[in-house]
Amino acid sequence: MTGKINPLDLVRPNILALEPYSTARDEFKGGDISVWLDANESPYPSGLNRYPDPHQKKLKHAIAALKGVREEQIFIGGAGSDEAIDLVYRIFCRPGIDNAISISPTYGVYEVSADINDIALRKVELGEDYSLPVDALLEATNGNSKVLWICSPNNPTGNAFAPEEILRLVDSFPGMVVVDEAYIDFSPYPSLLNVLDKHPNLIVMQTFSKAWGMASLRMGMAFASPGIAELFARVKYPYNVNGPTQEELLRRICETDIKGNVDEIISERSRLASALESMPKVRKVHHSDANFLLVEVEDADGMYDYLISHGVIVRNRNRVKGCRGCLRFTVGTPEENDRVISLVEKF
Ligand SMILES: *Cc1c(COP(=O)(O)O)cnc(C)c1O
Fold first, then answer.
1. Measured distance CA(125)–CA(103) in Å, rounded
2. Is it the case that residue 57 has pLDDT exceeding 80?
3. In this structure, are residues 218 and 248 in contact, taking their beta carbons and an 8 Å threshold?
4. CA nearest neighbour of 195 among 210, 181, 212
5. Which of 119, 191, 195, 272 places its Cα 20 to 30 Å from the Cα of 333?
6. C-alpha–C-alpha distance, residues 149 and 108, integer Å
7. Mean confidence (pLDDT) of the chain
8. What pLDDT is attached to residue 127?
9. Which residues, 6 or more positions from 160, have their beta carbon under 8 angstroms from its beta carbon?
10. What's the 201 CA to ligand 1 centre distance in angstroms?
């Protein structure tokens, strides 16, 4: 049982022993400096000539307040959550030796990143109605299982798993459990961020790409115990979040209230679901706690092509195991959803 597990025992030995790269800005310990000659930067002001803060201190301060966590629990990725996913493998999994476990179907990046890092990914099919197969996930582990991925709400199925069930895995899995909460703002369940301190083997991931409407910025986050967050900081590229992105995100976090848009997406999600459910070519609209609907239809490839020919693109999941016959519809604006409804009606 993991009550006793020390997550540092799960870390790759070379990462534990790593002497991280020290940047010029790391070695600067403060002082009243007006002449900066420590980093081989250009002295000519261009707005971009200085290296950014490698630790993103101001941003972490704002994110800590926003999420109700402490700054030392935060990792910020400048290439989205995908950066944090890759770092999890590089910190915990020895290539060719260790393995990770995921549900299936789920977000494809866990597998691609496992392949890149030469880590075997053991996929466990979801249960009836895409329920969490807690016992089967635990049965799939062996002594080299270091990471368990739980995406909740899950992409592409849309449903969230009850926190108690996820915590049963956190308590029983003898490795790190990563809960990807990319869609948590659309879910009726609370984030697991509020129990982070009780579970040293828990990592929670979130992103600014979905509810926050900043997919273009590529800002993802991982939250963990300070010891694990420190390992992320050591292994990441030193200046992994560029200066303009840090400033832009800081400004938007302070200015933006996402509630109005999130509420509209949630009410549009149920309107779109009821409308689609009543159509003859729709077999099933799966329950969603996210900003998209997984919809089983009669001729998935045909409907996909038909929608494209009318200027609407959805995601074809027809060839994904466990999603046979399904298209994934992102919830759009009310006008966009009207368009989709009237097109599917005529198909
Ligand atoms: C969209 C999505 C993300 C976000 O990825 P970014 O790289 O932060 O844009 C993460 N996880 C899941 C499951 C997603 O669907």
1. 6
2. yes
3. no
4. 181
5. 191
6. 11
7. 96
8. 97
9. 152, 153, 154, 183, 187, 188, 189, 289, 290
10. 21
What pLDDT score does 4 carry? Answer: 66
- Given a cut of 50, whether residue 117 has pLDDT beyond it is yes
User: Measured from the CB, is residue 151 less than 6 Å from ligand 1?
Assistant: yes
Structure tokens at 80: 């989205």
- Only one residue has tokens 């099919």, namely 125
Q: At what angle do helices 109-116 and 81-92 cross, to 10 degrees?
A: 40
Which sequence spans correspond to the domains of the chain? 7-255, 259-346
CB of 315 closer than 6 A to ligand 1?
no
User: Is pLDDT at 186 greater than 80 in this prediction?
Assistant: yes
CATH of domain 7-255: 3.40.640.10
What CATH number should be reported for the domain whose range is 259-346? 3.90.1150.10
CA of 82 to the centre of ligand 1 (A): 7
How many CB atoms lie under 10 A from the CB of residue 272? 26
The C-alpha atoms of residue 85 and residue 120 are separated, in whole angstroms, by: 15
Answer whether the bond into residue 45 is a cis peptide, omega within 30°: no
Rounded to an integer, the average pLDDT of 271-292 is 98
